[in-house]
Amino acid sequence: MIRMSNLSFAYGEREILKDFNLELNAGETVMITGPNGMGKSTILRLLAGVLIPQSGEIDHGYPKGTDPRQKTAFLPDSLSFYRSMTPLEAAKFHAGIFGTEPSDLELAKRAGVDLSRHIYELSVGQRVLVQMAIILSTEPELILIDEVLHSVDPYLRDILFRELIQVMEEKNPTVVMVNLNFHDIEHLADRVIFLGRDGIRLDESVDLLKAKTRRVVAEEIPPEYPVLLTENVMGSRHHIVYPFDKKIGDIADENIREMDLTEIMTAFMGGEYGVS
Amino acid sequence: MTLMVVMPLVYLLDSSLYKTGVTFLEYMVGGFALLWMIAVVYLAYNMFRPEEKDNAVEYVLSLPIAHWKLLIWKVLPRVGILLALNLLISTLGSNNLWFYNLSGLLSFVVFAQVCGFTLGIVGRKSWVARMMLFIMMICVFIISSIPPELIWKDVVNSISMMPYLPNLSPMLIWMDHVRFSQVSYVIVEFGFLLLILLPLYRAWDLKQVRTRELSFAKIAIVPLIVLAFPVVWLFSS
Asked: Whole-model pTM?
């Protein structure tokens, strides 16, 4: 288990995290989402050891003296890498640091990446694949993926997800993904964390979240319903209710609808921005 | 490179040099000595330039390498190159670049590397940072050119003359019998860095948004200071 306790972090004067607490269970896949500027990428950077918290601590659960970075694979949104190297050189360099065998770059080969070209010559999608192939080759126990998948075309994204699922099935690592494209990882994530202005606004398993959120179509709904967001759709009023425990009042069953993850998260975002 | 190409041409064009008796070799050695002075800072200032150019800073920081090891890999070859160049220039007759002794030279190199590195990552592209670097280098150069015992005696004298501070002048007699270690330079220079320059950096608040680099610099300072002692000790003994 990874435990982040009372973490605080600020970029200069701008405070991003204050007394932040989070526990990640071994082997679970967590999606962190939320509006921009709430600290999603900062959490990944802190977990990856790129940033050091100003206060608080991160316990990766390893014996004392173990560098957690040895067991972590980090794919940042900046796609930070030695771009002047070719993928083969980068794989060799990375393996040299981790003391493992260099990646065979099978993932990149499958996507038709020319391995003799410099990384800066590759498209963004190809770079993501190369970097993913390299960082996964060290058999990490913690995989951190920032919001980079939007720049990968659907075909490459499919290859990438299949590879990731294979690694998850074989090695059972903890995976933390920052994502704003919920459709892609709806079936991959076990748990969703929504970061709002005041820290963690939602921390729920995906199945439970879907079971507890409903779209209620009605002009007015009883005040007992905790409404996340109200919107006008094609002339009727839709209320997103979370948590939805039981039907209250005389609303017809066909007016209470289930929602997919994208709809739910969009409603949370809207609520965070104060849209109603 | 431009300086190296231009220097012989300037020498050939400058007829006054013939009159003063400066030979072509002396002129070139002087030019290289000047280049060396610039290189001391430039090499450190650009220590992480390849990583920055490649956008690899974040990647490097996520690798399981202790930050102090990373710095030693970067600093040691540079110190070696600068010392070899200095040796070459000195052999050709530039009088050890006017340093009091080898320990003065070494401490200057190490210190300049630290300052250049710190400003290189915190204040890159900032003219305030460049000006500070320039002023700092002059100060450190002056410090490195004075025998360490004189520096310490000056410190003791200054304290003794100040009102409300204890009179330390009896210490001067004791100091006459003490052989000052080469690491005195390091203590003076790093004292200068920690007490004057770092608060100055902070006051100017150079590129505060570069938090990752700033935190890296903070981590780097201590190992670099620790590194400076054995380097100066080893090379000068």
From this structure: 0.72
